[in-house]
Design goal:
The chain is an alpha+beta fold and 148 residues long. The protein has two domains: 51 residues, no CATH class; 75 residues, no CATH class. It has two helices and nine strands. The strands form three sheets. The protein has a four-stranded mixed β-sheet with strand order 3-4-6-7.
Length: 148
Amino acid sequence: MHYVGQTHTISVPLPVTLQGESTGVTAALVRDAFEQAYQTSFSRLLPGLAIRIVTLRTAAIGRRPEFDLASLAPGDGASLDSAKREPRQVWFDGAWHETSVWSRLDLPVGAVIKGPAILEQADATTVVDPHLSARVDLFGNVVIERTA
């Protein structure tokens, strides 16, 4: 938050607890919390100036129902055949290596891919160096391990 016209902001924690359907947050509570935080930071207030919330962050703590994390794993349609892409040359440790390329999300549970390899997906690329291997665990995570 800050006073309107200022560029520097301060964090203003709000004492919020959920009571039924309400958090009890009011404009007066927000202003009081801001003024207390501003006074602590700058040893003064600027009476009469409007205040502005610049960024609002929230956190919640609660209980969620149990669910089996294995449901996040690749489905029955995942297979090494569907995941395999064209290999390519990749530079590792001062030399070119023929490198297997895989569609990361199409790898089945239990798949082990020996490096060098590239695992591609829309939001990430995983590089498996030579002497490492990638294993898909029961939850669909890729675990990188040294090869024996």
